[in-house]
Amino acid sequence: MDNLSMTQRANRAATIGQCKSQLHEGKSLKIRVLSGSMAPAIMPNDLIKVVKCNHKKLVPGDLVLAIASDELMPRRIISKEKTEDNQDNYVFTLKGDAFKEADPPASNKSVLGKIIQLERNGRTIVLKKDNILENQVTGLLQKLCFWKKE
């Protein structure tokens, strides 16, 4: 591995660490999205607002900021299963809306926060808490599409 890739890895780890720290302190984050993995819900260059989440309250369809392949990625929760350790630990199935395949299973540690707002072309779109039914339906449709392929 060359020095540049080592530096890039160190910078990514530092960025992820800073995000975790801010969310743990109850601060919100605003992050510019670079990829099209969540298109059309979240587009490249959108600015997302992320807040600390209670993993217990997350439901399929919710949009979250997660760590995938050592990078911060917006993702949709497709499913959530409680682990058998009698703690509030979960295994999440996450997926980018633009992808056919889901990501590998993710733990609480990989799901950093909930996306509650995005800014696109100067407009702010608030992802309301009262859209729970809409999020659940969207999550269910994503899950059905995911299962259909298998």
Commentary on this structure:
The chain is an alpha+beta fold. It contains two helices and eight strands; from the N terminus they run αββββββββα. Strands 1, 2, 3, 4, 5, 6, 7 and 8 form an eight-stranded antiparallel beta sheet that branches. It has a single domain (3-149), classed as Ribbon (Umud Fragment, subunit A).
What's the short story on this structure?
The chain has 150 residues and is α+β, with helices and mostly antiparallel strands. It has helices spanning 3-24, 132-149; strands at residues 29-32, 47-51, 63-68, 71-82, 90-95, 106-107, 111-120, 123-126. It has one domain (3-149): Ribbon (Umud Fragment, subunit A).
Characteristic key phrases:
150 residues; Umud Fragment, subunit A; alpha+beta; eight-stranded antiparallel beta sheet
Blueprint of the fold:
Elements: H1 3-24, E1 29-32, E2 47-51, E3 63-68, E4 71-82, E5 90-95, E6 106-107, E7 111-120, E8 123-126, H2 132-149
Antiparallel strand pairs: 1-2, 2-7, 3-4, 3-7, 4-5, 5-6, 7-8
Shape: globular
Give, in order, the helices and strands: HEEEEEEEEH
Tell me the CATH architecture: Ribbon
Q: State the major sheet.
A: 8 strands, antiparallel
Structural class per helix/strand content?
alpha+beta
CATH fold field value: Umud Fragment, subunit A
User: So, the CATH homologous superfamily?
Assistant: Umud Fragment, subunit A
Low-confidence regions: none
Q: What is the share of helical residues?
A: 25-40%
Determine the mean pLDDT: 85
Count of folded domains? 1
What is the gyration radius calculated from CA atoms? 15 Å
Could you name the CATH class? Mainly Beta
Number of strands: 8
Q: Indicate the multimeric state.
A: single chain
Strand content of the residues, in percent?
Answer: 25-35%
Question: How widely separated are the two ends?
Answer: 36 Å
Counted by DSSP, the helix tally is 2
